[in-house]
Amino acid sequence: MRLTKNELSFLSKVYKNSNPLSLFSGEGAVLQGNEEKLLEEKDILKGGRPVAEAHKLLSTAADPQRCTRLVLKDGEYFVEKYAYKTNEDYVLVENDGGELVFSSGEQLEEVLFQLSQWVGISDFKTLDINTALANDELIVFLSMADIRREKELMSYLGQNVESRIPFSRIREQLKKPRPGSLTSILTGHYKYSIPDIENTKKILDRLIIAEIIGFQAGEDQVGYFLVGAYEGFAEKFLIPQALVMLETFNHIEDKELAGAGVLCVWAGMREIISLAFREGATEIASISGRQLLKMMEEFLGCPDVRKVKDDQLP
Length: 314
Fold this sequence. Notes:
Layout: E1 2-3, H1 5-11, H2 35-41, E2 45-46, E3 49-50, H3 52-62, E4 66-74, E5 77-86, E6 89-96, E7 99-104, H4 108-119, E8 130-134, H5 135-156, H6 167-175, H7 182-189, H8 197-209, E9 213-216, E10 223-226, H9 228-236, E11 242-253, E12 256-266, E13 272-277, E14 281-287, H10 289-300
Antiparallel strand pairs: 1-7, 2-3, 4-5, 4-11, 5-6, 6-7, 8-14, 9-10, 11-12, 12-13, 13-14
């Protein structure tokens, strides 16, 4: 079943409710006056009312207990899928060029197969990183990782690069992150705040204590550097290519929601990281393609996040 924005707006009069997760909760398009006729031609309406098959899909999306949004972006390629669930009723919705395509839960396996063609199903991973950082620590760490990635790419071009990162360069990356960098993704899409100069110094000190970074003083190459697995991460995670954004919400009561979110960044078949958002902190972990696909499956299943502890979320 495929609906235009105008047809969806027309149907919102039929499926009125206060559920904040409702597919019909957004602002509607301006009606042209021919929507009812078009919907009847599509066998979605009959006598001004939705037919049974269409109603089963539309009513679930109109008043869901749980909802998931999945976005996959790889260059110009963009996929946006939604899943809605109420008790045992389940519907998948895809944004296809501004039109919405509805399908039953039986199509989930086909959806996962399509997604696997982009992320792969390998069990191997070349990265070895798994830690939870306060949000301000994460943004400073990723700014250093971005700088280190850039230096690594420059070395492939035969340029001599210094391994130490001056404080001024870290501040520059925080204030004006390079387009497409991990720093720009978090500050642009997720509104991570940028610490001021004094707090940046304190955060760097905390990262040194946590043995994530080090500092070298003296006459030669004064500055900060990544250590251990964190250095390996920056050396191998060279060019972020694809983003997978996962969000899931539960409608508790009235307009109260419970939710969970994960951002996955793909830089190669065996170079994938997940960023799981917690209260004031973010867990960063290296994952395989198969783990990413499993995570997508769990989110599209619309999990009950109220009954799951933070460390057990998808």
